[in-house]
């Protein structure tokens, strides 16, 4: 996805407030061997881009003053109650250096699993995204978790997820939490029929 930005020279709270009144979002691009650069971006274009899942987990093409750069979205500050972006941070990337990034999980074939088809189980998602480490060129937009073989009484843990080549999950030693939980509804016992009136 593409982001169009321009450098900004005015700094401070007052300057940022004037930018926002003009329909712009103040931000910064940092990383690499280049000095951090203060930027401004059109608010409406950015607002709509932020509604796209891949904008948060993909390598972005930034056009900064007409020059192309590869960046990652690193932070967004929102207004407490308005649909208004207050500030945004991007990080420059080096194709030869690994990055860590949160990537969404896409759960598939849930309705085909034995747990759902045979037991009527309800599957809850403990995680909707995970942090991964990889080279920028290997960064996936999402990671698929196939539930088609999930059986009642079983679960799936983070280390069991099939990952794209060159991608590893960021976990502490010995850590392997469950990605989903499986709940089988308890059948309610049918009430005994009432005795006919007049009989004991």
UniProtKB/TrEMBL annotation:
> What Gene Ontology biological process does one annotation of this record name?
translation
**Large ribosomal subunit protein bL25 L25 domain span:** 5-90
Q: Any signal peptide, and if so, which residues?
A: none
Which key words tag this protein in UniProt? Ribonucleoprotein, Ribosomal protein, RNA-binding, rRNA-binding
Write down the SUPFAM superfamilies for this protein, in alphabetical order.
Ribosomal protein L25-like (SSF50715)
Q: Which family does it belong to?
A: Belongs to the bacterial ribosomal protein bL25 family. CTC subfamily.
Listed name of the protein:
Large ribosomal subunit protein bL25
The root-end lineage is:
Bacteria, Pseudomonadati, Pseudomonadota, Betaproteobacteria, Burkholderiales
